[in-house]
Amino acid sequence: MNRRRNYFIDRSFQSKFIIKFCLLVVIASVLTGASLYYFSQRTTTVAFEHLKVVVKSTDDFIMPILIGTLIIVTLLVAIATIIVTLLTSHKIAGPLYRLKVELDKMKNGDFSSPVHIRTKDQLQNIASNFEEMRLNLKSFVKTLKENWHSLGANLRKLRDGTQDTSEKKLIEETIRKIDAELAKLKIE
Q1: What DSSP character marks residue 161?
Q2: Which candidate in 6, 9, 56, 131 could, as Cys together with 115 as Cys, close a disulfide (CB 3.0–4.6 Å)?
Q3: CB-CB contact of 181 with 139 (8 Å)
Q4: For residue range 94-148, what is the model confidence (pLDDT) as tens digits?
Q5: Can you tell me whether residue 49 is helix, strand or coil?
Q6: Cβ proximity of 4 and 23 under 8 Å
Q7: What is the pLDDT of residue 44?
Q8: Could you tell me if 134 and 113 are in contact, meaning their C-beta atoms sit under 8 angstroms apart?
Q9: What distance in Å separates the CA atoms of residue 170 and residue 167, rounded to the nearest whole number?
Q10: Which SS3 state, helix, strand or coil, does residue 144 take?
């Protein structure tokens, strides 16, 4: 099982992500309470209090119940929002972190480790394109290294005077191969 134990991978990103969604919940609750209060101000309600019939304004009657209900619902929905956004942001932040680690390795010339992210995480397409890029770069660098070593061996033979004409053609062919590989790169 390839499970992460740490759900806060990028604490800053994930915290902001969670806070934004929780703010939406709080704003929705405040707007709901304010709307109900506004629309109930000009109405009256008949209620029974201590076995007596009492006429009150609707906002006086429902506001204590409304505030208590909104606080409880807001807290429960905020907790659910925190859990859902933490799990969702985890599926985004984890792959981003993994790609960043692999980019750092490639930046330093290490193309050896494959890029894998969990199947249920987001960014699967990006990760597969990233892996394809890594394999292409690895192949490119490997070809350049092989041609470079071949060129170096042939140049040493030329310097030592132990090279014949066919080996000079090998040098020219190796230089042509290196030029062809380098021509694949777009620098400007």
Answers
A1: T
A2: 131
A3: no
A4: 788 888 888 888 888 888 888 878 777 778 888 888 889 888 888 888 888 888 8
A5: strand
A6: no
A7: 83
A8: no
A9: 5
A10: helix
